[in-house]
Design brief:
The protein has 134 residues and is mainly beta. The protein has a single domain, classed as Beta Barrel (OB fold (Dihydrolipoamide Acetyltransferase, E2P)), CATH 2.40.50.180. Helix content is 10%, strand content 46%. The strands form two sheets. It has a five-stranded mixed sheet with strand order 8-1-2-10-9.
């Protein structure tokens, strides 16, 4: 099995490569009102709508310099779609163990934690939407 690895908040993560649809650059993101800070908005790509997620912000870290030039990982699984904005893309990592979904794997110069699209999605859904104070 191959993990598509990326870096976010000085950590390395890997997502099953079969869920990675495409990597795109300079995509147009439309903001969504009252969304949590980690939800950057929506992106339309080749007839499909993707929720755009800032992975660093989702991990609870602040990103000081967020520019408009992103490398976005488009992820598709089941009937869901999301676009992940990491700090950087590392590459592919071959692993032998497919049974454990939240384990750590050694790359050449890094250690990557395996995450699933469901885990990222459920983390996003736990965040509060709307204004902080009414």
């Amino acid at each position: 099995m191959e993990l598509f690895t990326f870096k976010a908040a000085d950590e390395y993560f890997g997502i099953d490569a079969r869920h990675v649809y495409r990597v795109v650059e300079d995509a147009r993101i439309t903001p969504v009102p009252l969304a949590p800070p980690s939800h950057l908005g929506l992106m339309y790509y080749r007839g499909e709508l993707f929720d755009v997620i800032d992975v660093v912000n989702l991990l609870g870290k602040r990103k000081e310099n967020l520019n408009n030039k992103y490398r976005i990982i488009l992820v598709k699984w089941s009937d869901k779609r999301m676009a992940l904005v990491p700090d950087g893309i590392v590459g592919l990592l071959w692993i032998e163990d497919e049974k454990n979904t939240d384990t750590v794997y050694e790359g050449v110069n890094y250690t990557a934690r395996r995450v699933t699209p469901e885990y990222i999605w459920s983390t996003l859904l736990k965040l509060s939407y709307g204004p902080d104070k009414i």
